Known about the structure:
The protein is of the alpha+beta class. The protein has helices at 24-39, 75-84, 87-92, 119-132; strands spanning 4-13, 43-46, 65-72, 106-112. The protein contains 4 helices and 4 strands. The two termini are 14 Å apart.
Amino acid sequence: MANHHLAQINIARMLAPIDVPLMADFVAQLDPINALAEQSPGFVWRLQSESGDATSIKVYDDDMIIINLTVWETVDALRQFVYKSAHYGVLHDRKRWFEIFKGSYYALWWVPVDHLPSPEEGKERLEYLREHGESDYAFSFKNVFAAPMETA
C-alpha cells in the first residue's frame, strides 16, 4: 500500500476580475470540472472554500492570482485527469482568461497519505521550483521524482 500521495498546485493570473463577462466561460466550467475531478479515479482531495471552489482563497498579494490545490493517489491519475479528460479543454483555452506566466505555474510533490497541504505549502513548493529547478522537493510532469520509500 502506498504511503504517499501526489499534491499539485497550479496558479493563474486572471485577465480580469472573476465576476466580469470576460471570465464567465471559465467560471461556468468550475463546478463541472471540479465534479469531474472528484469522480476521477485516484482523486483524493481538493482545496475549496464554502463556495465550492478555490477562487476566493488568496495566497498571493495580487488578487488576480487564483490557485488550485489538489491531492491524487498517483502521478498517472493526475495526468489522466489533466490531459485526457474534459479538463484538457479548459487547459487548452487558458489564454482566453489568464496571462501567460514566465516559468513554472504548477508544481508537484509527494505528501504522506494523511497530509492535506495548505495553500501556503503549495505556494512555497512552487516558488522553490521556480527558483531552484526540479528536485524531489518540487517537480513537474516533465521530470517526475519517485515517492519517498517507507522507512521501518
